[in-house]
Amino acid sequence: MTNEIQNSPRLATVKTLPTCFPLLGLTAAAIHGQIFKSQDRFDSKGRKIAGNGLAATGAIIRRGRKVLIDVDRYGAWLAGTDGGAK
Q1: Closest to 74 in 3D by CA, of 29, 25, 9
Q2: How many Cβ atoms from other residues are within 10 Å of residue 14's Cβ?
Q3: Is residue 35 one of the residues assigned to a domain?
Q4: Domain count, the chain
Q5: Is residue 26 part of a domain?
Q6: 33 is a domain residue
Q7: Which helix H or strand E contains 2, and what residues bound it?
Q8: What is the pTM assigned to this prediction?
Q9: Which among 25, 33, 40, 85 is least buried, having the fewest CB atoms inside 10 angstroms?
Q10: Model confidence pLDDT, tens digit, residues 13-38
């Protein structure tokens, strides 16, 4: 059971994630913006807008309406690494 606890990811909601990185001054609204821009999307003229890469790290976990963030992968994405994404 100890291995299961050690291997489980640290998860936070959008509302509680800023407390994990207090020095960055993140807000829930800023995190919502990062999640919205995490994947490629298209503008009104059909041109592709590149995403910020957050979705590719696997840090965003959606279960119904609930959005959870893997704190370690999010931190790696902030630091500029891929966080072990495949």
Answers
A1: 9
A2: 19
A3: yes
A4: 1
A5: yes
A6: yes
A7: helix 2-7
A8: 0.81
A9: 25
A10: 999 999 999 999 999 999 999 999 99
- Cβ neighbors of 43 (< 8 A, separation 6 or more) are 49
Would you call 80 helix, strand, or coil by DSSP?
Answer: coil
Does any domain span residue 85?
Answer: no
pLDDT score of 5: 63
**Residue from 71, 76, 82, 73 nearest 19 by CA:** 71
Q: Is the dihedral of CA 40, 43, 48, 51 positive or negative?
A: negative
Domain carrying residue 58:
2-79
Q: How far is CA 6 from the centre of its chain?
A: 21
Cα 56 from Cα 15, distance rounded (Å):
21
d(CA 49, CA 28): 23
